[in-house]
Amino acid sequence: MNAGIRQYVQSALGRDDAKTVSVVSPRRDLLANLKAALREEKRFRIVTIQGNLSQVQSQFATGAQPQVLVADLRDDIAASISSIQTLRTSGFNGAIILISDTLDEAALRGMLRSHVADWLPAEAETREIIEACERALNARHTEGQSRAHCLAFVSAAGGVGTTSLAIQAAYVLASRARDFSRTCLVDLNLQSGCLADYLDLEPRFDADSIRGEPGRLDGRLLEMMLARHATGLALLAAERTPTEAPRADGRLVTSVLSAVSDTFQYMVLDLPLAWQDWTFNVLAGSDRIYVVTEFTVPAVRRARELSDAIVARFGGQPSTAVIVNKFRQRWFGGGLRRHDASEVLGNRLAGFVSEDVELVSEAINRGEIVSTIDRSNHVSRDLARILLKA
Ligand SMILES: Nc1ncnc2c1ncn2[C@@H]1O[C@H](COP(=O)(O)OP(=O)(O)O)[C@@H](O)[C@H]1O
Ligand SMILES: [Mg+2]
């Protein structure tokens, strides 16, 4: 394990991650009821403080801050609102929930300025207060985090070009977004992936460092496990372990993908040919699934079969389509024609990607992306057209 990553994981493991809710109120009965109701609560820990916020405000300015502060303003509205403003300006960034009688205009304005998450009437019941805390905690969790748009590339057969097309797809999406740094390629061939080699990068993902605690993979740790291509594209790939059994289970894979999804705008997944326990789970979280095949009769048939099986499982959502790679026009003799492949695939067909043996193998051998070798090549033009249709 990379020494920097090991150190970071150890410090993260030492952290106490239980969410804390602090409740400040002059009412002893309210605090006692809340404590009793939350005795069995595992989602968060409650700390009660009897008094007015203005008296105890200094406790929140230093040291560990609660994720949620519930302040009962009963006797002390104006002073409490000004305490909240002071807390905010001194960097308190937990969610704030207020309990009070009707507020006047000045108090309301102060509340808005301090980004108060919720307001409850003075007579609110214990249950309503707990629900407001849960809402605030959930909102915190998702705040500012939108999911990445996710394309999954699955092979219908070996060597059809899934990895090459996944790389090219990431390039197309990132160029369109004009921001390469927010697109992440993920090599899910954890045992024998070669995506990093295709881009001449060092694989930096280390499953062992988060085994048993995949929830620890936060933004900073993830960034340490990414390799970056010269274009800015991010790559999550693990070192190959050709003689070992797979080292990642479904929980680990899905947690890693959810961390990637929270951080990036686009993610492109290169899935292993062999179906894993977690493959369907990963596909379920994608926005679009591309089954990649090549221009031969058996490969096209397998693509039909596989796409049928995926559609049968998901009922069309996420949508699934087949890309026929290594397409070449044959002018003479028998063999497969475009029309034959289209007939087998019917409405599952997303499109054909031209064969260009020299260009694609040059890209692989040089650790380059085909578009950076030849800006107007057929492979990327065909693929871009297919991606645009979705
Ligand atoms: N459009 C294409 N034209 C010509 N050769 C291709 C094309 N796409 C992929 N290849 C070749 O097919 C082989 C397998 O590609 P790869 O991307 O590793 O496929 P997979 O991930 O399905 O195993 C490589 O030798 C690559 O050069
Ligand atoms: Mg591959």
Q: How would you describe what is shown here?
A:
By secondary structure, this protein is α/β, with parallel strands linked by helices. It has two domains: 125 residues, Rossmann fold (3-Layer(aba) Sandwich); 241 residues, P-loop containing nucleotide triphosphate hydrolases (Rossmann fold, 3-Layer(aba) Sandwich), CATH 3.40.50. Helices cover 43% and strands 19% of the residues. It is built from 17 helices and 13 strands. The strands form two sheets. The chain has an eight-stranded mixed β-sheet, with helices on both faces. Strand 4, helix 6 and strand 5 form a beta-alpha-beta unit. Helix 2 crosses helix 7, helix 5 packs parallel to helix 6 and helix 8 crosses helix 17. The chain is elongated. About 2% of the residues have low confidence. Bound molecules: adenosine-5'-diphosphate (ADP) and magnesium ion.
Total count of domains? 2
Number of helices: 17
Classify the beta-strand content into a percent band. 15-25%
Coarse morphology: elongated
Mean pLDDT, as a whole number?
Answer: 87
Poorly predicted residue ranges: 8-16
Q: Architecture of the largest domain, CATH level 2? A: 3-Layer(aba) Sandwich
Largest sheet: 8 strands, mixed
CATH homologous superfamily classification of the largest domain:
P-loop containing nucleotide triphosphate hydrolases
Q: What small molecules does this complex bind?
A: adenosine-5'-diphosphate, magnesium ion
What pattern of helices and strands is seen along the backbone?
HEHEHHEHEHEHEHEHHEEHEHEHEHEHHH
Helix/strand-derived class? alpha/beta
Number of strands: 13
Distance separating the two termini? 40 Å
The CATH topology annotation of the largest domain reads as: Rossmann fold
Computed CA radius of gyration, to the nearest angstrom = 27 Å
The strands making up the biggest β-sheet line up spatially as: 8-9-7-10-6-11-12-13
Assign the CATH class of the largest domain: Alpha Beta
Helical residue percent band: 40-55%
